[in-house]
Amino acid sequence: MTALFETGPGGPREVSPGAVHIPGWLSLQQQRTLVEACREFGRGPVPYRAASLPGGHEMSVRTLCLGWHWAPYKYTRTADDVNGARVLGFPGWLADWGRRALADAYGDQREDSYEPDTALINFYEDTAKMGMHQDKDERADFPVVSLSVGDDCLFRFGNTETRTKPYTDIRLRSGDLFVFGGPARFAYHGVPRIYPGTADPECGLTGGRLNLTMRVTGLS
Ligand SMILES: O=C(O)CCC(=O)C(=O)O
Ligand SMILES: [Fe+2]
To answer: Which entry of 53, 141, 190, 199 is 20 to 30 Å from 161 by CA?
Structure first.
């Protein structure tokens, strides 16, 4: 799982085996396209919502899903914890972006078989955060492709054993790609903070941070 690219300031970086950060992967135009699409998805049939965790606590991010609906901690076709509607399908263009992301991150042909079937789109307001967790409700181990637009955040990428150290703190900026697969696929990660007001308004968002992760559920 070796990345076949130059590493250097601002360039692609292998954070740990299988975890690759590519700053500025999306052009401003692509960022605006993604923001506009995410706005459109929010018009229905299922709106963005703060998911409730077992115990009643609400997550501080608002989330909308495509393909499959995720609610802690499982996937269903309908948004039973929101309004019972079936979620929108996973768009073909987004799967194309996912395959291109894998090709750029890993520099090989493995992406041909990548068929992501769910996306979790998270919107973070200034004080929102996400605790350390594993993405482990999928029944397949294909990589997770993560795209960020809007304000910068502190992204913490750790290890597969514990939610604590060792981890690497990374500043994810608008347009950045982060891919985690292979030995990094089930690593703990989280978003301890957002840096309000850091986005280039040209990205299409005037405040907050949008993150989209696409995944292969392995469900049918
Ligand atoms: O917002 C991010 O960068 C990470 C989101 C995430 O970890 C998730 O949706 O599972
Ligand atoms: Fe996650």
So the answer is: 53
